[in-house]
Design goal:
By secondary structure, the protein is α+β, with helices and mostly antiparallel strands. The protein has two domains: about 20-165, Jelly Rolls, CATH 2.60.120.10; about 165-245, Orthogonal Bundle (Arc Repressor Mutant, subunit A), CATH 1.10.10.10. It has eight helices and twelve strands. A four-stranded antiparallel sheet has the order 1-8-3-6. Strand 11 and strand 12 (about 235) form a beta hairpin. Helix 6 (about 200-205) crosses helix 7 (about 210-225).
Length: about 250
């Protein structure tokens, strides 16, 4: 099948996997911006996608670096975050398999606007800027789908700004615990048991604060009888109390 896509590869110091180990189109078919492409088109794109492996905590790219292309998460999870000059971080998103990353700078020609790092071991597929732009020229519907994805992210970022601007750390912590209880909680005689998926430091990055305030507010919630903490295990003893925290005005 003829295509204007180039076969240019992006070389780097990160170890890549031979193409024979990668099933063409399998991961890309799950990506919203590539839905609607034919099997042949997905295979053609997959042949130009370079698998890259990252270990836990390893940086995929840093904020401000020149954009060389976009990434698709094949396995594992990555976190997208901004960092302050003092080293404090704000997590913007945690993305898993099938998620595309850095579509916007591929379009506008700017640098990467945020940093991305692997949470655990992860494999990402790299698609060069030249190949992706050529794909959009050949299939304009891809560009329209990118706009939808970017629009959804913008709405999520507006929500983050609203939460950071108008709510307290206690409110955001209560919201986090409630979401976790509703999604993964197990009923016990004492309440709803959840397992904290991240450390207090990482949780602080997700809800826009510092570790000390997370620890302090968890201790206060426990002293008030709303939760019971045992290591990474937390029992939510008063769901209605946490819900009331979200309804309270500042």
């Amino acid at each position: 099948m003829d295509s204007p896509l180039s076969s240019q590869r992006c070389s780097g110091t990160i170890t890549t996997v031979p193409e024979s180990t990668f099933t063409p189109g399998q991961t890309l078919a799950k990506v919203p911006i590539f839905s609607g492409l034919t099997e042949n088109e997905l295979v053609f794109l997959a042949q130009r996608a370079v698998p890259r492996h990252y270990s836990a905590g390893e940086t995929v790219f840093g904020e401000g670096e020149p954009c060389s292309g976009l990434y698709v998460v094949e396995s594992g999870q990555v976190r997208i975050f901004k960092s302050s000059a003092s080293g404090r971080e704000q997590v913007l998103s945690i993305d898993g398999p099938g998620s595309s990353i850095a579509e916007l700078p591929v379009f506008d020609g700017g640098n990467y606007p945020a940093s991305v790092a692997a949470i655990g071991d992860a494999t990402l597929l790299f698609v060069s800027k030249q190949d992706f732009q050529a794909l959009c020229l050949a299939h304009p519907q891809v560009a329209l789908k990118v706009l939808r994805v970017v629009g959804a992210r913008l709405r999520r970022l507006v929500g983050i700004i609203e939460e950071l601007s108008f709510t307290t750390v206690r409110h955001r912590l209560a919201s986090f615990l409630l979401r976790l209880a509703q999604k993964e909680g197990k009923r016990t005689p004492e309440g709803v048991e959840i397992t904290m998926p991240v450390s207090n430091q990482e949780l602080a990055s997700q809800i826009g604060t510092v570790r000390e305030l997370v620890s302090r507010n968890l201790s206060r919630l426990q002293a008030e009888g709303m939760i019971k903490i045992d290591g990474r295990s937390v029992i939510v003893r008063n769901l209605k109390g946490l819900e009331a925290e979200l309804q309270s005005t500042e």
